[in-house]
Design goal:
The chain has twelve helices and two strands. The chain is mainly alpha-helical. The radius of gyration is 20 Å and the shape is globular.
């Protein structure tokens, strides 16, 4: 199901696609190297990591990072391969991943302003490797953004992309409401203030050490929801790159929703979900999110028609 606006990238853009795909795979390889090192140092087996990817109750050592990093790495590999295959669809996904990577590395730069946090980079075994990971990630992200923004696409008409963008905005609004509700409860019981939450989004030194390599749940959660809002708005405006970016966002959201539902089955939380209005709404959120995401996939993947050159990117 391919229209004239889909398929391979034009010749003028192929260099940017090859560069971006290569760089995405290079950074993915770096994260995989950290995971392999974590397996070696912790004594865990590769099967433990594979099980944890699908089973939210399966414990893994802290050195093996967290589900957000795992699925982000999978996205890096998938989009990188699509970019190397010169698929136009990869442009939006590559831009999205590059911006998230850029935000992650800039956040580490803010953390490095704290003297205690900065000491972590002096670790004789992993300090230099950690610093190189973030510096390399920053360079890679900038190179991808610059190359792909210069490789403009023809503006393509799509009836379904704005609808897919609307789905993204609805999903983002639902999940943002739950994040606000959760943080309200934490602030009310003095567990984690609004100020601490806001600081953690831009400064990892509050809750993390650089050698943990994990950006933390709050940062990744917020980055994904901000991406959903921005990409959803771009899709509503019929921007070509929003289609590929939207598919990546929906894939990440779907994975996290499947993990949440799987956890409910395994911990038998279903009965508790009906004990209160909040529990019912929470359950409905998980049940409704996946069909909405599937609908968004279909709308964003629908073929487009060329509108002619020079009309945007």
């Amino acid at each position: 199901m391919r229209g004239p606006g889909d398929g391979r990238a034009p010749g003028a853009q192929r260099g940017a696609y090859l560069l971006s795909g290569t760089l995405l795979l290079v950074f993915a390889g770096g994260v995989l190297a950290w995971l392999l090192n974590g397996l070696d140092q912790s004594g865990a087996r590769p099967i433990d990591l594979i099980k944890a990817f699908f089973d939210p109750t399966h414990p893994v050592p802290e050195r093996l990072l967290a589900p957000y990093e795992w699925v982000f790495t999978v996205a890096l590999v998938a989009v990188g391969l699509l970019a190397l295959a010169q698929r136009r669809f990869a442009r939006g996904g590559a831009l999205l991943l590059a911006f998230v990577l850029l935000a992650l590395c800039l956040r580490q730069g803010v953390g490095a302003l704290d003297a205690t946090y900065r000491e972590g980079f002096d670790d004789p075994d992993y300090g230099a490797w950690t610093a190189l990971t973030y510096v390399g990630g920053f360079v890679i992200a900038v190179a991808i953004v610059v190359s792909l923004l210069r490789a403009r696409e023809e503006r393509r008409s799509s009836v379904t992309a704005p609808l897919g963008g609307a789905v993204l905005l609805v999903l983002a609004a639902i999940h943002i409401a739950w994040v606000i509700d959760r943080q309200r409860i934490l602030a009310d019981v003095n567990a984690f203030s609004w100020g601490d939450y806001a600081r953690d989004l831009v400064d990892p030194s509050l809750l993390h050490a650089p050698l943990s390599l994990s950006g933390g749940v709050y940062f990744h959660e917020a980055a994904l929801l901000v991406a959903a809002v921005v990409v959803g708005a771009l899709a509503v405006a019929n921007r070509p790159a929003a289609r590929g970016a939207g598919v990546v966002v929906l894939a990440l959201l779907t994975y996290l929703e499947v993990r949440a539902i799987t956890l409910r089955f395994q911990l038998d939380w279903w009965d508790e979900s009906f004990d209160s209005t909040r529990g019912v709404l929470d359950l409905l959120t998980h049940v409704v999110s996946i069909p909405l995401a599937v609908a968004g996939f279909a709308l964003l993947l629908w073929p487009t028609r060329e509108r002619g050159p020079g009309l945007g990117h």
